[in-house]
Amino acid sequence: MKRKGRPPANIIPIASELKKRYKDFSHYNRKNPLDELLLILCSVKRGEKVYLRAFKSLKQAFPTFEKLNQASVKELTKQIEWGGLQNQKARSLKKITTAITEKFGKLSLASLRKMTEGECEEFLCSLPGVGKKVARCVMLYSLGMKVFPVDTHCWRVSKRLGWIKTNGKHKFCSSKDMDILQDKVPPRLRLSLHINMVSLGREFCLARSPKCHRCPIAQYCLRCGVTRRRQ
């Protein structure tokens, strides 16, 4: 039985304000689920300009999935080396392409479109180095499934809005936290809210020195309220 979380009372006005400002900007995500997975792998611990360039380099060097599948770890590393963490990412990429090929007989994730959300998430999370956040990004952006990925921006914004309770020892988002937050977001709001919270986290709700005085949803934020009372 699926858990049913109660949506925060302010979730609809917040979603509306964020949609008005950011207009559901997609962050260059891909419709093909395998391309989306590659893009996310390139994005690990890197800024947008860097990982987009890494992804472009990878696609230019291996224009088909067949050629990508035939590439060695050394060849993969060469294409993404300037983006950083190239050795780690290349090894992960090779393991992932091998696992997908063994499962489906070819390097393709098209079969995911026939799966339920549970089956899809289970398979993606079985891939080397793929966790729940990455799996749900692929499911949301490329497969149109109504899930809510919790990345570092969504996690930070949700904490400051008081949507999830944390304590001093609980600084990182666990798999359970991801499920709790997803259950609190109505399915019809999940795509829009996720991508707009990412935009907010990059522009205003920064990890350090957030720009609370300019934030479009400051009136709903617990942190902004505390900051104002101290002034």
Could you explain how this protein is built, in words?
This protein is mainly α and 231 residues long. It has 2 domains: 11-25 and 149-230, Endonuclease Iii, domain 2; 33-141, Endonuclease III, domain 1 (Orthogonal Bundle), CATH 1.10.340.30. It contains 12 helices and no strands. It has helices spanning 11-22, 33-43, 48-61, 65-70, 73-80, 86-104, 117-126, 132-141, 152-161, 175-184, 190-203, 222-230. The radius of gyration is 19 Å and the shape is globular. The N and C termini lie far apart (47 Å). The model has no long low-confidence stretch (mean pLDDT 91).
Topology, please?
Layout: H1 11-22, H2 33-43, H3 48-61, H4 65-70, H5 73-80, H6 86-104, H7 117-126, H8 132-141, H9 152-161, H10 175-184, H11 190-203, H12 222-230
Helix pairs in contact: 1-11, 2-3, 2-8, 5-6, 7-8, 9-11
Task: Briefly say what this structure is.
The chain is mainly alpha-helical. Helix content is 58%, strand content 0%.
Give the CATH level 1 class of the largest domain. Answer: Mainly Alpha
How large is the radius of gyration? 19 Å
Tell me about the largest β-sheet. Answer: none
Oligomer type: single chain
| Mean pLDDT score | 91
Helix content class: 55-70%
Task: List its traits.
Endonuclease III, domain 1; Endonuclease Iii, domain 2; 231 residues; mainly alpha; globular
